Each structure stands twice: as structure tokens, then as C-alpha cells.
Amino acid sequence: MATTLLMPKATAVWLVDNTALSFDQIAAFCGLHPLEVQGVADGDVAGGIMGVNPIQNGQLTREEIEKAEADPDYRMKVSDPKVRVAQAKRKGPRYTPISRRNERPNAIRWLLRNHPELKDAQIMRLVGTTKSTIDSVRENTHWNSANIQPMDPVTLGLCSQIDLDLEVKRAAVRSGAGTPDEVEQGTMLLTAEEALATAGGRTGATDLPGSDANRRPEQDEEIDAESVFAKLKSLKSDTADEDRD
Question: What pTM was computed for the model?
Fold first, then answer.
């Protein structure tokens, strides 16, 4: 992938003012027309633009400039950037590896059978297929219909479980079986308190460490201990009375 020059006109202004390069060399490096570079030199073009040093921003080296000044036919090249900036993801159909594209009809059949509430657009996002393929699988007109077996797209690696759950919840909200809050919280992790509360609701309050049911045996044990000590005291007092007698 070719590296794009940042601020070509500002770079051309700096090269015109600080180097002995020809207009053709500057135009080829900055992606401009030679007449534009000549207009920059005459002050007719980019009059209010401040020159930018391409050496400081790492897009050109001093050796490259000296080499071009020595050879008028030499064309300078933009230096490779030291830091690679991640490009924004392209919005469109999900990319499916070539080795897994044959599995898409199986995933479509599984989604149509197990999640009929999903729209075709949702299936297209999950599997990375087209509407015509979905219609052919639904109507059994696909060229390989005899060999199509329903298979989970998550197992096939065509989508993640989070994406599938999110699309299912969106379909549930659209049909009135869910709420928008459930869709927003679908991929959120529970806190420790929420997890304990959920576990307590499922197993019952008697299973929680701080419940009254767990405290009752301790209270019973304390009552039994007090009664035992009371009996011992009464026995000691009886023996003391007998000794006095």
C-alpha cells in the first residue's frame, strides 16, 4: 500500500523555499501539477499556506533530497511511516474466509429453522451472505440443497455468540417480546453483587450465607449451650448444699 503524503501543498511550499529541486521533482513528490508548483514559487498559489517540513514529520529524509538535487531525473519517494495507524473498518457485508464460504448455506438453514424471527438483513450481517442466497435456501432452490445441513454459525466460525445473541434480542424487541434495555445490556457483565443476587434468586434465600435460615442453627446452638451451663450451675449448687449439710 502506497504511503500518502500529508499536506502536499504545504510540503511543496517548504520544498520550493528550502531546496534546489526542480518543479517536476516537487510536483511528482507532492502529487501536484508542475504548473501548480510554479504558481507556488511565484506566489500565485497557496499564498496563505505555511510550509511544512517533511523531514520533521518523517515523510522525507535529507539524503533523499540531496540525491534528488544531484540528479534532476530522480524522483523522491515518501518514507514509510514509523507508526501504523489502524484504518477504520469498512461498513458492509461481513468478510468470510474462502475456506468457510461453502458453509454459509448450512448456517443460513440453521438460522431459518431456529430463529425464524430474524430478518434477511440480520442474517446477511451475521453470515456475510446475500438475499438471493437466503431466498434460495429458504425455498430449497439452492444448487446444493440436497447436501445442506443446518449447522450453528457460531460453531462454523462465521459469527460470534455475542453477535448472534444481539441480533436475536433485536428481533425480540421488534416483535414486542423484549425491551430495548435488554439489547443494550445484552453484552454487559454482571457485577459481583448482581451475580450473587441472581444466584440467590435462583437457588432460594436459604442458600445465602447471611440468610435467617443459616442463622437459626447457630441461635439454637447458643440456646442449647446456655441451658447446659445452667444445668451445670444447678448441679454445683446442689452439691454445695449437700456438703454444707
Answer: 0.41
Closest CA to 131 of 93, 88, 89: 93
Return the ∠ at Cα 131 (arms to 104 and 109), rounded to 5°: 40
CB 5 within 8 A of CB 56: no
Tens digits of residue pLDDT in 147-177: 999 999 988 888 888 889 999 999 988 887 6
* Contact predicate 54/102, CB 8 Å: no
Q: Helix, strand, or coil here: 90?
A: coil
Q: Tell me: the pLDDT tens digits for 31-73?
A: 889 888 988 888 887 778 888 999 988 889 999 999 999 998 9
- Enter the C-alpha cell of residue 104: 454459509
Listed residue (49, 61, 11) closest to 31, CA to CA: 11
CB 156 within 8 A of CB 114: no
Contacts of residue 193, defined as CB under 8 A and 6 or more positions apart, other chains included, come to none
From residue 145, give the alpha-carbon distance in Å to each of 45, 109, 118, 125.
Answer: 65, 10, 21, 22
- Return the C-alpha cell found at 11: 510540503
